[in-house]
Specification:
Protein name: Acetate--CoA ligase family protein
Shape: flat
Structural class: alpha/beta
Number of strands: 30
InterPro entries: ATP-grasp, ATP_grasp_subdomain_1, CoA-bd, Ligase_CoA_dom, NAD(P)-bd_dom_sf, Succ_CoA_lig_flav_dom, Succinyl-CoA_synth-like
Strand content: 15-25%
Number of helices: 24
Pfam families: ATP-grasp_5, CoA_binding_2, Ligase_CoA_2, Succ_CoA_lig
Distance between the termini: 25 Å
Largest sheet: 7 strands, mixed
Organism: Ramlibacter pallidus
GO molecular function, one term: ligase activity
Length: about 725
């Protein structure tokens, strides 16, 4: 029931009437009618305009009832003294009517009063909230969490893109901190998950069908074993919709991106013979990086640059050009870009700064306009350029980079780009690409995802971003790409609160970061918490084989490491294989001293010779019930670091030849020699870290997160 169909014409009628009256929210009775049209369960109710009617209607419903003011001018009814709960008989209903009307007039003398709503009171159940909101980047989102008066205090709410599927809704029920409460605690009965899922799906479809519903709250939704019923409905409208974002066709994106990233010919606009100039650095990198395509320097006066014939304009170049790298002042960019458009160049790499980042929005919009007019894709402006190693292409002013590998990285910031280059060089991490996105006037993260999705040279995609221009487009592409290749995202600006001033509960609890976190998870993306973590995951995830199951075993020579590694497994969502089956436990015990400990972690103790590590690790790789190994090495004279490292590589390779491949990571505790050992292990397919029990487990955890999201486990 992913695509539920509601009665659209009924809702359209109500919204049109509200628009004609110039209002921006629904009254409670209108909210009920909208819910009825989409099969969203709400209590019996009616609106009365006299105290006598209140007594009659309440009696026909059965007591107790709740009574509430109905006024388009009073949004927060409780504050106005406009809500009385637990009305027990007809006389009380009459009195309650009079009190509510008097309070409302006192609260806002000129408020338009429609009447008083009399509503069947829900008996018991767990209070939850189901809502929806509109986010600038992701569009329509549906929310679920613990409801009632504590919603803004606890902020225990989770979000998904709308419309949501039943699977999305199920993951929302499990995705809040109080998930156990829904399953029934301290003798309480579990709530109906089906009824909650149903309501989430229907609300998400309603707001997707009607973009003008900007915010919606059902709070509280009383969930019980019999169903879910929304006691209060609040709907906020916005009839001034932003125009939909421009989104180019995916096939066209890939065609352009292939020409930009794998060009047969590159023009350098602003090429220079003068050392220290950006145009000189770009030329040097293209030549020294080993690029085999045509290089065309563009300079108004010089006949040749660095021994290569120069042209006054790209229009003077005889052949076809795929990419143009700009190394000229900001004020000259628009004119040169037009010439690139006339030359039918696919992409412009805009190194110059002095656009949106300095407040020159108009200048940047002019470039976007030219880009659209001539169908030329823009990378930047305000970037360091990019590398694509399979083509030996260093279209950047940073130093040339030549360690080829299967990880593609991108950054929105130049400084972070330099850190990526430095880390890659220092750790000998092979990359397929490093790309600067800068101001993202055009090309952004989802354009890169589309290119790397079909790029056989790329196995892992890692992206640093400060914002997502079109979060919905990114999420939709990432959901597909992450099924094939791990996508790692470092989202900067985690602590900025997004929607504190929103009119609804759902909006008020929606910290921007919480939305990013939930939507990225929904899209199968691995989220890195720090720059270092993004880099380590980029390096480690591609070399680990995909696990075939959830059972992880720790083999350690140091008890202390074993405890920390166990903690790290919990932090990274890894399942330690416990209890270890008796026969496997006995098999491990054969190799370890009597004062060691089998179970999990398997503690072989510190003074053991290399053969103990070899035997226990071989057993861990051999037994099909074990799916991944975490090794904790302790530096001793008996088993020096490089002896341990070479033995581990040997046993892993020996088992690989027998068809037994499993992810293995290692933590090395010891003196400085463990650094060389860790590097040797890494170069031979075992992500290993000196002085850290957290990093190896984070890398393994990321591989598992990806495998689960891609449906491989």
């Amino acid at each position: 029931m992913a695509n539920f169909q509601g009665d659209k014409s009924k809702v359209r009628q109500i919204l049109d009437a509200v628009k004609n009256e110039g209002r921006d929210s629904l009254t409670a009775p209108e909210g009920k009618l909208v819910c009825d049209a989409y099969g969203i369960n709400v209590p019996k109710e009616g609106v009365v305009s006299s105290a006598k009617e209140a007594g009659t209607l309440a009696s026909s419903m059965g007591f107790p009832v709740v009574m509430k003011i109905v006024s388009p001018d009073i949004l927060h009814k409780t504050e106005a003294g406009g809500v009385i709960v637990g009305v027990k008989n007809a006389d009380d209903a009459v009195t309650a009517y009079e009190t509510i009307i008097a309070n409302a007039k006192k609260y806002k003398a000129d408020a338009k009063i429609v009447g008083v709503q009399v509503q069947q009171m829900i008996k018991g159940g767990q209070e939850t909230i189901i809502g929806a909101m509109t986010d600038d980047s992701f569009g329509k989102l549906v929310a679920f969490g613990m409801g009632g008066v504590l919603v803004e205090v606890l902020k225990d709410v989770t979000f998904r893109l709308a419309p949501a599927t039943r699977e999305d809704a199920a993951s929302m029920l499990d995705g809040i901190q109080a998930a156990e409460v829904l399953k029934g605690v301290r003798g309480a009965k579990p709530v109906s998950r089906e009824a909650l899922q149903d309501t989430i799906v229907r609300v998400s479809q309603l707001v997707s069908d009607f973009p003008e519903i900007s915010e919606m709250d059902l709070n509280p939704v009383f969930a019980s074993e019999d169903g879910a019923i929304a006691a209060d409905v609040r709907v906020v409208l916005n009839f001034n919709q932003k125009p939909a974002r421009y989104r180019p066709d995916e096939k066209a994106v890939v065609t352009s991106m292939k020409r930009i990233m794998q060009p047969k010919a590159v023009a350098v606009i602003g090429a220079s013979n003068e050392a220290g100039k950006i145009g000189n650095s770009v030329m040097k990198n293209l030549i020294n990086g080993g690029y085999k395509g045509q290089i065309y320097p563009i300079h108004p006066k010089e006949a040749e640059i660095m021994g290569i014939k120069a042209f006054k304009s790209v229009k003077d170049i005889p052949g076809e050009v795929d990419t143009a790298v700009f190394a000229i002042p900001a004020k000259l960019v628009a004119g040169a870009l037009k010439e690139c458009g006339e030359k039918k160049i696919a992409g412009a790499v805009l190194i110059p700064s002095g656009f949106g980042e300095t407040g020159n929005i108009e200048g940047q919009e002019e470039l976007q306009k030219i880009g659209r007019e001539y169908n030329i894709r823009l990378m930047g402006p305000n970037i360091y350029g990019f590398y694509y190693t399979p083509a030996n292409l260093c279209a950047t002013f940073c130093t040339a980079y030549d360690v080829k590998g299967s990880t593609a990285l991108s950054s929105q910031s130049g400084g972070i780009g330099m850190a990526i280059i430095g880390f890659s060089r220092s750790t000998k991490m092979g990359v397929s690409a490093i790309v600067g996105l800068g101001n993202k006037s055009d090309i952004d993260e989802d354009d890169l995802l589309l290119f790397f999705e079909q790029d056989d040279n790329t196995k892992v995609i890692a992206q640093h971003c400060e914002d997502l221009k079109d979060g919905r487009a990114f999420a939709e592409v990432a959901k597909r790409v992450s099924k094939k290749k791990p996508v790692i995202v470092l989202k900067a600006g985690r602590t900025a609160m997004g929607a504190a001033a929103a009119a609804s509960h759902t909006g008020a609890v929606a910290g921007t970061d919480k939305i990013y976190d939930d939507v990225l998870r929904q899209s199968g993306v691995i989220r890195a918490n720090s720059l270092r973590q993004m880099l380590e995951l980029s390096r480690g995830v591609p070399i680990l084989p995909t696990p075939k199951g959830e059972n992880v075993v720790i083999i350690t020579g140091a008890g202390g490491s074993g405890v920390l590694l166990s903690d790290a497994c919990v932090d990274n969502g890894l399942a330690l294989f416990k209890p270890m089956p008796d026969d496997l436990d006995a098999a491990f015990r054969k190799f370890i001293p009597p004062f060691g400990a089998a179970g999990n972690p398997v503690d072989i103790t510190g003074g053991e010779p290399p053969i103990t590590y070899v035997n226990t690790v071989r057993l861990g790789l051999e037994d099909d019930r074990i799916h991944a190994l975490i090794l904790g090495y302790w530096h001793t004279i008996v088993t020096p670091p490089m002896v341990f490292a070479k033995n581990m590589v040997q046993v892993v390779n020996e088992m690989k030849e027998k068809g037994k491949t499993k992810p293995v990571v290692a933590s090395l505790a010891g003196d400085v020699e463990v650094e060389e050992a860790a590097q040797y292990l890494y170069e031979n397919g075992i992500p290993a870290y000196a002085y850290s029990t957290e990093l190896p487990v984070e890398v393994l955890g990321a591989k598992y997160k990806w495998a689960r999201a891609a449906g491989l486990l």
